[in-house]
């Protein structure tokens, strides 16, 4: 009898184990906040013909440019670039954290004059604040007039805000740059526990900014589990950070959580746009009573594709969203970085969300991957009618595209 009872118990436990295995995803969704995203929602722009990409030139000196931001007053593009081979070993947002296998940790910033088509690598002056050989592994980037209002066109100095994935932890580096020179002079490194898996940065003042974290856990076993079993509704969000001189750094979560916060931009009318690359959406926020640390959700826009970086089209306030219209096969790209844009192609597209049309997405540019493969960011200079697209893993890390007259930039 005892033997029969034990057998019954083991059979029951085995049945429970089998049920749990077969319903593992359902259990995670019910108890741990895992979500299921319908792939059909991310295929709106799939398998379409190329649009507005007929006059693109790929730069072959700068590599692996994850982000770009155009300074409209000077028609200059600023780019955060790097090392494709090194990023396969160490680039925390893409799961790779094998620091011992990476040869160097000194990536680069470039600028590109859209009036003269001149590329310049920017020299870093660490200004005694950090060692000259401090890790520089670039990601998101934004620019802001030095000490002035964001729309001031007379100031010849700007601040460059850059995400840095140092081995010692993530930080936002704030550099000062004088237009016409080739130097970025460090004025502040901002660290805080809330800056832990930083992706994008959007400046709103000389020492204040928003960031997105694209993961909840930055390192270790929990990060592996987060990637393996996600996406999770609670994983990521937008943070507001203030790093005023003489005061402690303060960061505050200002958005609801989302599966994978990614692109981020702020318009002149104080609208904040936050993209979710897993969910294929852009959430529009407004600053409540003009307070940057208090965001109020206005609406969520389904963009119909994996959404990456967001920029603001100068003169309009409309967000430009870089998307992967056919999906992003990241494992394939990481295994073939030297072939990207040569034999391995990742179609890309840029969407414009017109405010006057309630942010309904419209296709502005699409490329089959031959020129703008694996593009993670794109910004436009309306004066020269030029789009600059950046690709974060590719050798030949950005492309400059003259837009046809058929593209409405007004």
Verbal overview:
Helices cover 12% and strands 41% of the residues. The protein has 410 residues and is mainly β. It folds into 2 domains: 1-31; 32-402, Neuraminidase (6 Propeller). A hairpin with a 4-residue loop joins strand 24 (375-381) and strand 25.
Concise summary:
This is Paraoxonase. This protein is mainly beta and 410 residues long.
SSE inventory with pairings:
Blueprint: H1 2-22, H2 24-31, E1 56-59, E2 67-71, E3 76-81, H3 84-87, E4 90-91, E5 96-97, E6 108-113, E7 118-125, E8 138-145, E9 157-166, E10 169-178, E11 183-190, E12 198-205, E13 208-213, H4 220-229, E14 237-242, E15 250-253, E16 261-266, E17 271-276, E18 281-287, E19 295-302, E20 306-313, E21 318-324, H5 330-335, E22 348-354, E23 360-367, E24 375-381, E25 386-391, E26 398-402
Parallel strand pairs: 7-11
Antiparallel strand pairs: 1-26, 2-3, 3-6, 4-5, 6-7, 8-9, 9-10, 10-11, 12-13, 13-14, 14-15, 16-17, 17-18, 18-19, 20-21, 21-22, 22-23, 24-25, 25-26
List the main descriptive attributes of the protein structure presented here:
4-stranded antiparallel β-sheet, 410 residues, 8-stranded mixed β-sheet, hydrolase, mainly beta, Neuraminidase, single chain, Serum_paraoxonase/arylesterase, Paraoxonase, Arylesterase, disulfide bond, globular, 2 domains
The whole-angstrom Rg is: 22 Å
Query: What's the CATH first level of the largest domain?
Result: Mainly Beta
How far the N terminus sits from the C terminus, by CA atoms, comes to 84 Å
* Uncertain parts: none
The total beta strand count reads 26
Mean pLDDT: 91
Main sheet, how many strands, which sense, barrel?
A: 8 strands, mixed
Structural class: mainly beta
The CATH topology of the largest domain is given as Neuraminidase
* Annotated CATH architecture of the largest domain: 6 Propeller
Helix content: 10-25%
CATH superfamily label of the largest domain: TolB, C-terminal domain
Number of domains: 2
Strand content: 35-45%
Protein name: Paraoxonase
Keywords: Disulfide bond, Glycoprotein, Hydrolase
Family: Belongs to the paraoxonase family.
